[in-house]
Amino acid sequence: MATKIPATVVTGFLGAGKTTLIRHMLQNANGKRIALIINEFGDLGVDGDILKGCDQDACAQDDVVELSNGCICCTVADDFIPSMEKLLARDPAPDHIVIETSGLALPQPLVRAFNWPGLANRVTVDSVVTVVDGVAVDEGRFAHNVEAVDAQRRADEGLDHETPLSELFEDQIACADMIVINKTDLMQPEAAAKLAERLKADARKGVQVVRATMGALPVDVLLGQGIGAESDLDARHEVHHHHHDHDDDDDHHDHAHDHGHDEFESFIIDRPEIADADAFAAQLTDVIRKHDILRLKGFTSVAGKPMRLTVQAVGPRVDHYFDQPLGQTPRGARLVVIGEAGLDRQAITQALSA
User: Could you give the CA distance from residue 200 to residue 255 in angstroms, rounded to a whole number?
Assistant: First the structure.
């Protein structure tokens, strides 16, 4: 059976920084070929112009599809499904598909569409990523420019439902697998940390909340979460059955990109081979939870086994499997740990080396 192509749904209000986050992802795709579906409004495809050609290897111009006939969650059958089928028919097929929703789209109907015949056996929702404007949400505004959101809502004749921003925000949080608090460079560290705790408390159990500047997330954190959100719709139910409109998501502050990955760090741990795969996976889960590690991946040998064990963790969810013979490869383990800046490297290294 062919492997399903992963798709990431990026949602969030106007001005939160969705386009900036996606552009950064494309510029750091590390050889991965990514196709984009962008939900535009009006005649000017600003997001598409920002993203097209920003990295020809990662995303060629004909791998960018713009939907401008209305909010994507209102036009699933007419626009989204045909666009997905067209991308899936490409040869070669993309390695990953990223869907940027309009600022006022409900993510739940879009995730539900991945169960439609023709898509269900070919593509899966790797994760739903909700981007929030940290400054605006901290001040209770949800969007940087509420007036602009309302103006665009009034301008869109194809919008099927209306909802207060607070209710739509709850729906976006309810559907998220990862919440990105953007623009944290404009916040006091204490306020950013408090907002992260509040959003984590409001979200489903296990949802990761990360902080970012200018949408600069490591690609290994953003992609490859392997959630399969379309199979978990009951857990991410709509809090409200209404919604809103959108606009392009250009980040309107003039900060340079010299923050970037400073808010994240990664390091490598080398240790002797392990004695038992299941026990090691349980050990990893405990350490990940204690130190709030975002990603952990690597390889190890298991005493008495001729095959290499691959280990991959997204938050506390750890997958491990034997993938290939060790051959002449030295026995032992090498693990890559990824998290927000400030990880206690010494304690993590000691715990994972025990």
Answer: 27
Q: Mark whether 253 and 288 lie in a shared domain.
A: no
The whole domain housing 322 covers 263-353
Q: pLDDT band at 54, cuts 50/70/90? A: low
* 8 A C-beta contact, residue 123 and residue 172: no
For 7, counting Cβ atoms within 10 Å of its Cβ (0-12 exposed, 13-18 middle, 19+ buried), the class is buried
Residue 231 shares a structural domain with residue 135: yes
If asked whether residues 213 and 302 sit together in one domain, one would say no
Using a CB cutoff of 8 Å and minimum separation of 24, what contacts does 284-290 make?
Answer: 284/311, 284/313, 284/318, 284/352, 285/313, 285/316, 285/318, 286/351, 287/348, 287/351, 287/352, 288/313, 288/315, 288/316, 288/318, 289/316, 290/351
**Among candidate residues 220, 241, 258, the one where a domain is terminated:** 258
The per-residue pLDDT for range 148-198, each reduced to its tens digit, is 666 655 665 555 545 567 778 888 999 999 999 999 999 999 999 999 999
CA pseudo-torsion sign 45, 209, 177, 316: positive
Where among 258, 293, 318 does a domain terminate? Answer: 258
Four-residue CA torsion sign, 261, 173, 88, 160: negative
SS3 annotation, 156-179:
CCCCCCCCCHHHHHHHHHHHCCEE
Total structural domains in the chain? Answer: 2
- Using CA of residue 67, residue 68, residue 74, residue 77, what is the dihedral sign? negative
Distance CA 184, CA 164 (A): 25
The answer to whether the beta carbons of residues 163 and 240 sit under 8 Å apart is yes
Q: What is the CATH number of the domain that holds 336?
A: 3.30.1220.10
Domain match, 219 and 321 both: no
